[in-house]
Amino acid sequence: MSGFTIDRRTALALSLGGAAMVAFPRLALAAALDEAAVDAIVQPFMAAFETPGIAVAIVRPGAPAFVKGYGVRTLGTPGAVDAHTRFGIASHSKAFTAAALALLVDAGKLGWEDPVVQHLPEFRMSDPAVTRMMTVRDLLVHRSGLPLGAGDLMFFPAGTHVAADVLKALPHLKPARGFRAGYDYDNILYIVAGLLIERVAGMPWDKFVEARLFAPLGMADAVGSRGSLRTDNVAGRHARLGPPVRGIGKLEVVQPDEGPMVDAAGGINASISDMAKWLQVQLAQGKLPDGKQLWSPEQAREMWKPQTITAASDGPTDTNPARPVLAAYALGWFVQDYRGMRMIQHSGGLSGQVTYSGMLPSRGIGVSVLSNVEESVSAAIRNAILDRLIDAPAFDWVSSYRTRQKAAQDEALASVEGGVDKAPAGGPSLPLAGYAGRYRDPWYGDVVVSRKSGGLWIDFVPTPVFKSALEPWGPDSFRTRFAKDAGEDAVVSFEIKDGKVAGVTMKPLSPLADFSYDYQHLAFVPVP
């Protein structure tokens, strides 16, 4: 069966599936779970959904961590996934950024309620009042007022922007709602948090997490940035590239497209052995195996404290027994209920890889599932393992995921029918040469439109892979046709006044495009 993609938006939606931790109940685990039992959970998923590779970590009281790899790293090559295969853990990195800040709070070098400008005086939002009020905590909890994915086009796909450019971009990003008025997931403020850590600690974010988190935890395989990998034991990337849109069709190998700019929001690469150690220290409230505190219990509680409501519902259903009544974002973690217990969890989505982790602190249980596909099978595997660990009522997560996958695929096909392959009515009102020129957006940078081979050509200057012919697509609008795995195509619309181009706006071609292709936030004007 053809699969349906998961993007960063869908990963967040599907991931929405108390008090300080005390000693675990003596009978914390109601069901034994040996290697054969884990195999019996994982392998049917891989067979049903053509998943090339999976890695699983399980931590629980009174037992050594279970870590195991399944399948191959990359389709068409023999390398197997093992306990030390590195995956891009994407937005799991946000919890490491939160923990890095917690270390600085413990050291008295900053406070969660410190204004950001106290440590980064050049920090600015579009509203001066918000600039003054924005705290260190606000950087982490997705309530800034910025729209979903604002500014992500600076770093997905990788380009020439560097992390410090977000400080120049933020004043030009328009809010979608009031400050602290609601939830919209972002990456850009986690990049600011990384810059803040660098400013306060005196070393780059990736070096800080490697020295102050990975080293004491013994996360020997982990690096803070994909560019720091020095091994070939790295999981490949796989996605379905269509037609008609990404997310449908046969699995194909795709290349990583994230750059170092996004590291503090999603750049860590780690193995499943590393993830087991990370879950163990989380469940131990910052205590290392040798008894030393990596961060204080006070900061452990702070990082798990709900801050921003993200979802609410009537709770579990027959078709989704894990649907939470209430979910919220804390500091680098989602907090929600799972079968009547508090779950601390997060997902991570990159081009070609999706990962899920979840912890049930009252049971001392943690599960992490890493995959090398752009699909959410890792979420269903995580839930199936958690259910077995807590002896939950039997539920067929394979069938449940298949049903949701089919529904998503049908919805995708319906939503793009006639809208991706067939141009809308209308066309250019100017000679093609009239559209040529250089255009500038204040936060993203420049695009150049030129005449080429009898038509028009566009070059997104800061994003080298975004170069394409422009094909007429409705009144004074054109569509791109980027290379197959370069990213989502855009519809480029020219505003014409007095026979000249006065401005350029864009939107994703596909209604299913990942939120990180935030073309809709761009507003270009001609460069004289």
Please characterize this protein's 3D structure.
It contains 13 helices and 20 strands. It has about 525 residues and is an alpha+beta fold. The strands form four sheets. The protein has an eight-stranded antiparallel beta sheet, sandwiched between helices. An eight-stranded antiparallel beta barrel has the order 13-14-15-16-17-18-19-20. Strands 3-6 form a two-stranded antiparallel ribbon. A hairpin with a 4-residue loop joins strand 16 and strand 17. The radius of gyration is 23 Å and the shape is globular.
Question: How do the helices and strands line up, and which of them pair or pack?
Answer:
Blueprint: H1 8-15, H2 35-49, E1 53-60, E2 63-71, E3 87-88, H3 93-106, H4 116-119, H5 128-133, H6 165-169, H7 188-201, H8 205-217, E4 237-240, E5 251-254, H9 263-266, E6 269-270, H10 272-283, H11 297-303, E7 308-312, E8 326-329, E9 334-338, E10 341-350, E11 353-360, E12 365-371, H12 377-389, H13 397-416, E13 437-441, E14 445-452, E15 455-460, E16 467-472, E17 477-480, E18 490-497, E19 500-508, E20 523-526
Antiparallel strand pairs: 1-2, 1-12, 3-6, 4-5, 7-8, 8-9, 9-10, 10-11, 11-12, 13-14, 13-20, 14-15, 15-16, 16-17, 17-18, 18-19, 19-20
Helix pairs in contact: 2-12, 3-7, 3-8, 12-13
